[in-house]
Design brief:
This protein has 482 residues and is of the alpha/beta class. The protein has 19 helices and 14 strands. It folds into four domains: 123 residues, 3-Layer(aba) Sandwich (Rossmann fold), CATH 3.40.50.2300; 168 residues, P-loop containing nucleotide triphosphate hydrolases (Rossmann fold, 3-Layer(aba) Sandwich); 69 residues, Helicase, Ruva Protein, domain 3, CATH 1.10.8.60; 78 residues, Orthogonal Bundle (Arc Repressor Mutant, subunit A). The longest helix has 35 residues.
Length: 482
């Protein structure tokens, strides 16, 4: 597995199953049986939800999750086996118990082959159903604990193999080791692709909360209203579609770490509510009246300079100071060139091993990698190496295997006298009028933003801090194409 700044972690394990809080979905064509099962589960201390169809089961699983599912083989519409396959595609970790009228062992074996945890032939006793569900929940708990342990071991392996040859990267490791044992909030700043989530995970797993949950959420992926429900939770009936109460990320991360990525993308209303949570240590679910205590360490990240966002009145200053207790800045890859070749060789070793053939870098290829500006940072470097290994049949990669566009991505570099030192000409940035100099700098910055956004002009405009109309106008004036 590739390590360092572009580590792709395993899925975040759900919070461990707590006795008395397990959630069971039940659906069967026999309404009386369903109500009886619902009563059994609630008497056992579980949270039970009755679903009237296979589609309802899938919707409940998507919106509110489940620890186990009990379904009949003869469900109306989508049959039990079809539903079993649908659930296994979406959530293979959720054990499913099938109910049927055929006592033939062959039917049970067929259900198990399709992925069922168990099959119970009707009629059955309350004790039989309760015992099977308890075994399923015990297995689910064990699997989650194993996943959490593997995740911690994977993270320990990643940290141990962290490719940090440059002094800047070594300094990051040193900072993380010092701050991880504390409870202080951490703000991670860095360009996209530099590995902010990896650093956040290292803060968690090197700290005293490593056995607690690590919950990560991308603030950019949600509108403000949805974001509030996602983080703080909601009560039943608090809005259309809230058919059951749901704990938010703060509650699910209690005892562990909550990682809020792209924190600069949140709106003022959400920022005010987040500040209140940080000050009081309590969350109020949407539609709720009683605050709930939470014990969470907050780690945030952004690809913007948050101090500048505060100066531009796009981010609350009081929230910024709450989040910026421990600042960690991850330099762009172009700022730590000593890491480029070690990273490239590391990724090459991994992907050539996957390809089943030894592959090396030619001296020319190494020079090419070192002179490229890497606007996509470590993520782009890994992608370039992976693509070269897949597309090239040679045992040694040359610069042509990378297909890098230096003209579009290379930033303007100047020496102390203002001379262009990129090696692609001797034009001085002092040549021409002031507007000429500004236009050249603007063109370089716009190209870099478009490269980072993979051609998505809306994202590039957002990164540049202008609206799309302004970006289109600048591109047209600077001859950057439409």
């Amino acid at each position: 597995m590739p390590l360092e700044m572009n580590y792709n972690p395993p899925p975040i394990a759900q919070a461990p199953l707590v006795p008395g809080r397990a959630r069971v979905l039940v659906a069967d064509e026999d309404r009386e049986l369903v109500q009886s099962a619902d009563r059994i589960f609630k008497q056992s201390g579980y949270e039970s939800e009755i679903c009237d169809s296979g589609d309802a089961v899938l919707m409940a699983l998507k919106q509110r999750g489940a620890d186990a599912i009990v379904i009949g083989l003869q469900l109306p519409g989508m049959g039990g086996l079809e539903l079993l396959q649908q659930v296994k595609q979406r959530r293979p970790d959720v054990p499913m118990i099938l109910l049927g009228v055929d006592p033939n062992p062959g039917t049970a074996m067929a259900a198990m082959r399709h992925g069922a945890f168990d099959y119970i032939a009707k009629p059955f006793t309350d004790d039989e159903l309760s015992a099977v569900v308890r075994r399923a929940l015990d297995m689910s708990l064990l699997q989650r604990e194993n996943r959490q342990l593997r995740q911690q071991l994977d993270m320990a392996s990643v940290a141990a193999g962290f490719v940090a040859e440059s002094s800047a990267s070594k300094n990051i490791l040193s900072i993380v080791r010092r701050v991880a044992p504390s409870r202080s909030t951490v703000l991670i700043e860095g360009e996209s692709g530099t590995g902010k989530e990896l650093v956040a995970r290292m803060v968690h797993y090197w700290g005293q909360r490593a056995e607690g949950p690590f919950v990560a959420i991308n603030c950019k992926a949600f509108a403000d209203g949805v974001m509030e429900s996602e983080l703080f939770g909601h009560e039943k009936g608090s809005f259309t579609g809230a058919i059951a109460a749901r704990a938010g990320c703060f509650e699910r991360a209690s005892g562990g770490t909550l990682f809020l990525d792209e924190i600069a993308e949140t709106g003022p209303d959400f920022q005010a509510k987040l500040l209140r949570v940080l000050e009081d240590g309590e969350v109020l679910r949407v539609g709720g009246t009683k605050p709930r205590k939470v014990d969470v360490r907050i780690v945030t990240a952004t690809n913007r300079v948050l101090r500048k966002e505060v100066a531009a009145n796009r981010f609350r200053g009081d929230l910024y100071f709450r989040l910026n207790v421990i600042p960690i800045r991850i330099p762009a890859l172009r700022e730590r060139p000593d890491d480029i070749l070690p990273l490239a060789r590391h990724f090459l070793e991994f992907y050539s091993s996957e390809a089943g053939r030894p592959i090396t870098l030619s001296p020319e290829a190494e020079r090419t990698l070192c002179t490229y500006s890497w606007p996509g940072n470590v993520r782009e470097l890994e992608n370039v190496i992976e693509r070269a290994v897949v597309m090239s049949g040679a045992e040694q990669l040359t610069s042509e295997a990378f297909a890098l566009d230096h003209s579009a991505a290379e930033p303007l570099e100047v020496d102390d006298l203002g001379q262009n030192v990129n090696g692609n000409g001797h034009e001085s940035v002092q040549q021409g009028t002031l507007q000429d100099c500004l236009d050249r700098a603007a063109a370089v910055r716009i190209k870099s933003a478009l490269e980072s956004a993979k051609g998505n002009r809306a994202l590039a405009a957002h990164d540049l801090g202008v609206d799309r109309t302004t970006l289109y106008r600048l591109m047209k004036r600077l001859g950057l194409g439409q």
